[in-house]
Amino acid sequence: MARVRVHNFNVSLDGYSAGETITLDKPIGEAGALFARFDGRFIHGVDAVDAPITLDRALTSTWGQGIGAEIMGRGKFGPQTGEWADEDWRGWWGDAPPFRTPVVVLTHHRRAPISFENGTSFHFLDATPEDALACAQDLAGDRDIRIGGGPTTVRQFLAADLIDFLHLVTVPVVLGAGVSMWDGLAGVEDRFTVESATSASGLTHQFWNRIGAD
Amino acid sequence: MARVRVHNFNVSLDGYSAGETITLDKPIGEAGALFARFDGRFIHGVDAVDAPITLDRALTSTWGQGIGAEIMGRGKFGPQTGEWADEDWRGWWGDAPPFRTPVVVLTHHRRAPISFENGTSFHFLDATPEDALACAQDLAGDRDIRIGGGPTTVRQFLAADLIDFLHLVTVPVVLGAGVSMWDGLAGVEDRFTVESATSASGLTHQFWNRIGAD
């Protein structure tokens, strides 16, 4: 049975997963410290693991395994807000986005799908989490769905109890401000088992599996 | 640059990785306890990770990533010794061996290659570790080579300093007898950095990266 999974989701010690304002230069706003301390290189996904193979890299490399589609918020696709002023801009990733599957981009402003040679395609959808998931499942066949973020999107799917697996990475930095991972989710841990592991880099990896999901 | 990797290699507390005698019923002899305590299901390899996704499963699932060929000892392929009495027997795994790449089987008794629809093929070779590696590299293109075991094979490649990465799993069992992982390898750790992590199952995962290999 296909699952809904979140991978490599970074959270600061004070609970932020992105900065408040994203720009072309700063895709996750002022929260760059979350990734600067992070040894993941997870965009290599399923094809390779960089040398040396560390615990962080091995854990983050499960990102692509068995995944048939991703759902992301508009801010993960790019910094534009409102109507699409520049449709020539096709995402942060240039000609080879790392996803290699269909990707559903949640936005109130629809536009035509975009396809890339490496198997990635973006489909822009104005939908509830439930409807977006149904669309992603059609695109994914019997493979799993990854909720790719940002934090607002992950939070919506968690609130709707649609997440089966969450790989959370606690990064030992204090951001002081940003987009919260946890707003409105008090007690969410009751629906999951949680396994934790530390790595030499100082990160803590948490594996949340929804009770009854397997 | 392609690397030579070992993954998910189980060792008991007293240093054994297989039983002394393997049979059709007991592919790793009396060392079955090594796997009975092991939550890996690593043969799912690169395609999926079973639910729930545990630390053990995530770590072991890097097994197939970026791998273009495997080298294994004859005992991993099957229990026959000496001349091949039964060439109809095509390995422990039935019609769909989990490898999905070419596999070099080290044996003094050559036989014709075997191919399967899922991309697995077995090539029987009487060769030194160095020559087997050259053959595997031809088969793997620019992808990495996995040394698949058993322990005697891994030990030979370690002794020849041909291993770039070793994922060792210390299993908290005492076997009392078997095929040693460590015979003749005193001080081998000097050639590697080692990162360790424990998991909820009681296993300890060690990531050995050869110094200067990256």
TrEMBL record, chains A, B:
One of its GO terms (molecular function) is 5-amino-6-(5-phosphoribosylamino)uracil reductase activity. Coiled coil: none annotated. Residues 8-185 form the Bacterial bifunctional deaminase-reductase C-terminal domain. One of its GO terms (biological process) is riboflavin biosynthetic process. It comes from the Bacteria. It holds the Pfam family RibD_C. InterPro entries: DHFR-like_dom_sf, RibDG_C, Riboflavin_Biosynth_HTPR. PANTHER family: BIFUNCTIONAL DEAMINASE-REDUCTASE DOMAIN PROTEIN, DIHYDROFOLATE REDUCTASE FAMILY PROTEIN (AFU_ORTHOLOGUE AFUA_8G06820). This is RibD C-terminal domain-containing protein. It comes from Streptomyces qinglanensis.
